[in-house]
Amino acid sequence: MLNYILRRLLLVIPTLIGIMVVNFALVQFVPGGPVEQMIARLEGGGDVFSGFSGATNDAGAETAGQAESQYAGARGLPPEFIEELEREFGFDKPPLQRFVNMLWNYMRLDFGESYFRNISVIDLVLEKMPVSISLGLWSTLIAYLISIPLGVKKALRDGSKFDSWTSAVIIAAYAIPGFLFAILLLVLLAGGSYWQVFPLRGLTSENWEQMSLLGKIGDYFWHITLPIIASTISAFATLTLLTKNSFLDEIKKQYVMTARAKGLTENRVLYGHVFRNAMLIVIAGFPGVFISIFFSGSLIIETIFSLDGLGRLGFEAAVARDYPIVFGTLFIFGLMGLVVGIVSDIMYVLVDPRIDFEKREG
Known about the structure:
By secondary structure, the chain is mainly α. The protein has 2 domains: about 35-100, no CATH class; about 125-360, MetI-like fold (Orthogonal Bundle). It is built from 18 helices and no strands. The longest helix has about 35 residues, at about 120-155. It is globular. It is a multi-pass membrane protein. Keywords: Cell inner membrane, Cell membrane, Membrane, Transmembrane, Transmembrane helix, Transport. It comes from Tritonibacter horizontis.
């Protein structure tokens, strides 16, 4: 197993470089880079993309006789200023040199500073991390705590009325878009049109620092209740049905009939043998499920509930072409995703020691 882990760790480096190469190459063809963004702000905060449709303004018409610039909307700015902007953002160097310098800095854990926020990327990520961890961790834990017992009970009562109506409920929950359910929760329980039970926005109250320890804990859970419910509603279906099907598959295997024939009690058979084997794929997939919710499921929820997390950070950085944040977070999260894949394999072995990845590779 140790050799397998070492091989997987060595593969992390070329895989991560490949991810960065593809994304860096794609960015070179995307209009509206950081220089254009800065020019748009200096010219009055207009939309940076308006220049690509051929639109002109009065200032542009007055300076039509000046030398053409490669940046739309920059005709009223001196070329020396544009060159200074390029040097500041590092665009005075060839793309290959910029990419190599970026990777060298990342290998030294130097992710640079945001172009427009005047703060380092690491500090910015750490600042937004609590929101995303709260949503990802609690949503995953609640989904597992509900889905596993429900899936087991559905498997034991397969074909019953309980199995039928619970299936209808979880499929209906899966079909409801998370953002639509979040809006419904706001309207019903956050003072929209009915009851003011939960706060409308934020992860904590303004006076959180003055609260006691128990008060801080209660305030924290009071604020994240609705976002977690909204982000978890569609996660039950997959986990519940996966648990049920895994249990049904194990129950039909020969070793279960043998255990029953030896006189073992039904609980001993189900929870001493079947449960461990059936839960292999469910429990071992926990890191992957958490990372999935942590990365991809938070943008809309964060926006609706006014939570300032990594989802909004990544979206705003992409729109603003804040490349240090875009590539810095891509590198960090890509590395985390690859490492979590290795952790998932280790989880498989811990849950079922009979699995040997080295023999499977050989």
